[in-house]
Amino acid sequence: MNNPFKIVLLVCITILSGCSKKNESSPSYNKGDLTILTDESFQSVTEALAEGYMINYPETKLKVVTKKEDLGFLDLLNDKARIVVMSRELSPDEIKEYEKQVELKFLPAKFAADAVVFVVPNTSSKESISMDEIQKGLQSEEKEFIFDGTNSSNLNFVAQKLNKEPKELKFSVIPGSKNLIEELNKYPDKIGVIGLNTFSRPYDQASIELRNKVKILPVENKGKLYTPDYAGMREMKYPFTRILYFLANEGNFNIANGFIRFSCTQLGQMIVQKEGLQPYNIYKREVQMR
């Protein structure tokens, strides 16, 4: 074999090797690992969607990690996470920072309507709560409202709804939504504030047991009572309805964007509905009988 031929052969091998490595590292939505950060309040629906994705794409491994909403968002900005679940609306400055750090347009992938709910022990005589009571109670030194933690999605959302900063509100804390429900009967004059997805699964035994310990208070607004049921969330009439959405820092169609697309398709939306939440993307069907 002469030297020119050897050189050509080596060049070809090098090029083919480079192409092979490039193909191995090319984006893929149907294989690989992904960690999803979510607040505890919507952990259940996130895990259900992750399980559905792994069933459809067995070569993927999705891990759901709970982290306070604001901290998860910071991890996304600092490239410590590829995808987070959010509920509160970002401020213009936060959107600007996201687009600067991630170098992507801010396009929240909305997938479900959830709610922040106000609960009391099932033995309580209280049957409803008004917006005025909520506003005044969160300014009172009595600290009659108990949240599941500081920096939690529930606290952030309620503060935003009332046009306040979380630090301006007065409240107590029992860490963890499930712990809050378990401990609430020790404080009969207090009102717990949790996410509906904590116990929204209709036929899940653990959810049923949690629901049986408390009752959800309808919220009175302008003389009308609103409940966080499907209709209340779908029509956004329940005052504390919130939209859950994904944010990613992935510019290509890799596993994070694949998971987002799956969650917003019909199958993903069916999973959302089985979680007892209102799907964001409603698929209307019309059947014509002839």
List the helices and strands and how they pair.
Blueprint: H1 3-24, E1 32-38, H2 43-56, E2 60-66, H3 69-77, E3 83-86, H4 92-102, E4 109-121, E5 129-130, H5 131-137, E6 145-147, H6 153-161, E7 172-173, H7 177-183, E8 191-195, H8 205-211, E9 214-216, E10 219-221, E11 224-226, H9 230-234, E12 241-248, H10 255-264, H11 266-274, E13 278-279
Going by helix content, strand content and strand pairing, the class is alpha/beta
Outline: globular
Helix content: 25-40%
Order of helices and strands: HEHEHEHEEHEHEHEHEEEHEHHE
* CATH-defined topology of the largest domain: D-Maltodextrin-Binding Protein, domain 2
- Topology, number of strands: 13
How would you characterize the overall build of this protein?
It is a single chain. The strands form two sheets. Strands 1, 2, 3, 4, 6, 7, 8, 9, 12 and 13 form a ten-stranded mixed β-sheet that branches. A three-stranded mixed β-sheet has the order 5-10-11. Helices cover 38% and strands 21% of the residues. It has helices at residues 3-24, 43-56, 69-77, 92-102, 131-137, 153-161, 177-183, 205-211, 230-234, 255-264, 266-274, and strands spanning 32-38, 60-66, 83-86, 109-121, 129-130, 145-147, 172-173, 191-195, 214-216, 219-221, 224-226, 241-248, 278-279. The chain is built from eleven helices and 13 strands. The chain is globular, with a radius of gyration of 23 Å. By secondary structure, it is an alpha/beta fold. It folds into two domains: 32-112 and 243-279, D-Maltodextrin-Binding Protein, domain 2 (3-Layer(aba) Sandwich); 114-241, D-Maltodextrin-Binding Protein, domain 2. The termini are far apart. Helix 6 links the parallel strand 6 and strand 7 (172-173). 38% of the residues are buried.
